[in-house]
Amino acid sequence: MAVNVETLDKLERRITLELPLEAIRKEVDARLKRLQRQVRMDGFRPGKVPLSVVAQRYGYSVQYEVMNDQVGQAFADAVAEAQLRVAGQPRITEKEGAPEGMVAFEAVFEVFPDVKLGDLSALELERLESSVDEAAVERTLEILRKQRRTFSPRAEGEPAQDGDRVTIDFEGKIDGEPFAGGKASDFAFVLGEGQMLPEFENAVRGMKVGESKTFPLAFPQDYQGREVAGKTADFLVTVKKIEQQQLPEVDEAFVKSVGIEAGTEAALREDIRRNLERELKFRLQARNKTTALEALAKAAVLDLPKAAVEAEIDRLVEGARQDLKQRGIKDADKAPIPRELFKEQAERRVRLGLVVAELIKTHDLRATDEQVEAHLRELASSYEYPEEVVRWYKADPQRLGEIQAIVLENNVADFIFAQAKVTPKVVTFAELMGQ
C-alpha cells in the first residue's frame, strides 16, 4: 500500500496512519489473558483471577501499551516503505474522521536533509607542520627534575623569589568582612608557578620571614568562587617560612628513577624526544583535522533538522550540568542553564556530523582494522604497560569505537587535504602546544 507523505516545510513531513480497531482489540485481549496467568490478587489463587477482574484493573494500561506499540510499528513500516530517514522523534496525535472500524493518527516529523558537498578542489587550506626542537626536550627534562626536587630553608634575611616554597598565613576581607575560603594558616605554595593569582604572588615575592603585608586583590570576573568573582579583597599576609629548591642532577640514579634502565642522559633525552614526537603527531592531526572538517562543513549546502539540533542542545546542557557537579557547584541539577547559549555550537555540530557522514558515504571512506590497530598501539606506547592498555580498549566495544571514530575522522581529513589547495604553515613546538 502506497504511503501518502505530505511536505509541510523544507524538512517537515506528515503521514496519516490508520489501524483496524479489531486488531487492537484482539491484541489487548491476548495480553490480558497472558497477564491473567501471572497476576496475583488477594482472594484468588495464582492464575485463577477472573479475566473480567484483570481487565477492570489493567485494561486501560494494556490498551495504552498496545496502542503505542502498534502506532509505533505502523509509523516504522510507513517511513520504511516511503524510504524516509527520520530525524528525531515524531509528534503523533489522534485524527478525527477515521473510516468505520479504524482509528487514525497523524505523525508529523522531520527527515534528514539532502547534503550537497562543496567542491573540495576549490578549498584553500593551511596545514600546520612542526617538529620537536631541543628546547622542547630541555623543558620536559626540567619538568622531570622539578617533579623530584627538594627544598631547604633559605638563609635568614633572604627574600622570597621565584622557585621558592613559601609558607604563609593569610586572611582576606571584602568591605571589611571575611569570606569563605579567604583565610588559611601554614599555607605553602611554590612562588612563580601560577598556583596563586598574579597579584597574590607579586605581593609575596621579595618578602622575608616574619614580614607582614596588606595588599588589594581583584578577583577575575570568571573566578571559580562565584561569591567573590569580580570583587576586590584586602589581604593580610605573613611569611612564616621560605625554602629554596634544589633540582637533582641528571645522573644515573635520576635517569633510572624515571624508568630509563640504560641510566644515561642521552637515553633519557631520546625517550623524551620519542614521547614528544608522538604527542606532537596527535596534536597536529587534531588541529589539521579541525581545519579540514570546518572547511568541509562551510562549503556544503544543507538544511538543518530542528529535532537534531534540539537533541544536541540537550546533550550540551547535560554536559554543562555534569561539569558543574564535578566542580562542586551546589544544586547543579537545578541550576538555570539557558539553552540559547548552546544553539550555535549545536548547529555547528549537527551540520558537521551530517556533512562528514555524506562524504564518508559518497567516497566509501572507512577505518580499516589495520589502521585502528596501528593507532591504538601508538597511543598505548606512551604508557608503562602498553599491552594492558590495548587489552583495556579492546575489551569494551564503546572504547574501541572511540578509537575507530578518531581514525575515521583522520581518514576524512586526509581525503580533504588531498583534494584541496594546501599551503604548509610551519609553527614551533611551543606555539603548537600552547606554551
TrEMBL record:
InterPro entries tied to this protein: PPIase_dom_sf, PPIase_FKBP_dom, Trig_fac, Trigger_fac_C, Trigger_fac_C_sf, Trigger_fac_ribosome-bd_bac, Trigger_fac_ribosome-bd_sf, Trigger_fact/SurA_dom_sf
Domain of life: Bacteria
Annotated ranges, domain PPIase FKBP-type: 163-248
Entry-linked Pfam families: FKBP_C (PF00254), Trigger_C (PF05698), Trigger_N (PF05697)
Keyword presence, Isomerase: yes
GO molecular function: peptidyl-prolyl cis-trans isomerase activity; protein folding chaperone; ribosome binding
UniProt xrefs under SUPFAM superfamilies: FKBP-like, Triger factor/SurA peptide-binding domain-like, Trigger factor ribosome-binding domain
Reaction catalysis annotation: [protein]-peptidylproline (omega=180) = [protein]-peptidylproline (omega=0)
Keyword annotations: Cell cycle, Cell division, Chaperone, Cytoplasm, Isomerase, Rotamase
Predominant cellular place of this UniProt entry's protein: cytoplasm
EC numbers on record: 5.2.1.8
Subcellular location: Cytoplasm
PROSITE patterns xrefs: FKBP_PPIASE
UniProt keyword Cell cycle, yes or no: yes
GO biological process, one term: 'de novo' cotranslational protein folding
GO (cellular component) term, any one: cytoplasm
Reported function: Involved in protein export. Acts as a chaperone by maintaining the newly synthesized protein in an open conformation. Functions as a peptidyl-prolyl cis-trans isomerase.
Classification via NCBIfam families: tig
Family statement drawn from the similarity comment of this UniProt entry: Belongs to the FKBP-type PPIase family. Tig subfamily.
Domain notes: Consists of 3 domains; the N-terminus binds the ribosome, the middle domain has PPIase activity, while the C-terminus has intrinsic chaperone activity on its own.
Name by which UniProt lists this protein: Trigger factor
Gene that encodes the chain: tig
